[in-house]
């Protein structure tokens, strides 16, 4: 391509400081270095984590350096590759990944975990392997959120944090597999290993929670109880497979765990927490059955503590966490794309809004007010 080896000037939504709206700016994206790939971002989902890192910075989330470009749930096309890149070529359709898969470390070789730590500390700090970002604006470095920054028309990512996918896949749909849908779906089918005929409760009906509901249905759970304080989400939950929905506020001050234990004659077999609230996490654990109940935590928080009564664990419950749904990122995501292409996995139904990059702050408003499931930002339509 004509831009190979050159900086690309394009548009991005820049966060200059915490708790301030994003600013649409012209930025420069440098060429990829060794083991890096520059991609043209076609579409990006707007995840609750993006909003939290901007508006809840330092309040349950570790403070990232600013300025930065948010966005981590995306799909695009390879524009150019840096030295020593062998698995990607210009024109490849790809999904960038905040969780790497180097194939070489002990974690990658172990089937019990997906937590590859290649470049982990750097990408968590918003930089790539050499300690710098590839994005700059007004003459200063702009950090890359989780090493991705998909609210930018072009970005550069490590070649271990990228999945090559079916060239026929619609990027404006499969971008959702970069975070939310994979996380919730995997929490049910991979980490939780929900069983046929079981009883499940899903806490929180955002994109992650709805994906968990979908996972429970795919696993053939007999009963799927969807829990949320926003009843407007119940119809969509039923469409994804919930057998019933509960609004805790309909029961006054009675704890939701007590309600679920009563309704299920002892507790659910699987509780999937998709909110990121320590209070909800404790409630989810306590809603499970003595002896064999499993609680999977997929809601995200970094600095808060969960309160667990020891007897709840001693009585045989299992408490598990999941990161990215347990999937080995670059290895497993292409298969999830194939599952979508073969209509085994829903994605279209998660998309409630489509907006251009210029309306990114409107997308955050929709998310904050509970009016969207997933807004997909088109990076081609400015």
Automatic annotation (TrEMBL):
Molecular function in Gene Ontology: alcohol dehydrogenase (NAD+) activity; S-(hydroxymethyl)glutathione dehydrogenase [NAD(P)+] activity; zinc ion binding
Domain Alcohol dehydrogenase-like N-terminal intervals: 34-166
GO biological process: formaldehyde catabolic process
Keywords recorded for this protein, A-Z: Metal-binding, NAD, Oxidoreductase, Zinc
Every Alcohol dehydrogenase-like C-terminal domain range: 207-336
Entry's Gene Ontology cellular component terms: cytosol
Cofactor: Zn(2+)
Alphabetical list of InterPro entries matching this protein: ADH-like_C, ADH-like_N, ADH_Zn_CS, GroES-like_sf, NAD(P)-bd_dom_sf
Family assignment from sequence similarity: Belongs to the zinc-containing alcohol dehydrogenase family. Class-V subfamily.
Role played: Alcohol dehydrogenase. Catalyzes the NAD-dependent oxidation of primary alcohols to the corresponding aldehydes. Oxidizes secondary alcohols to the corresponding ketones.
Name of the protein this chain belongs to: Alcohol dehydrogenase 6
Record organism: Poecilia latipinna (sailfin molly)
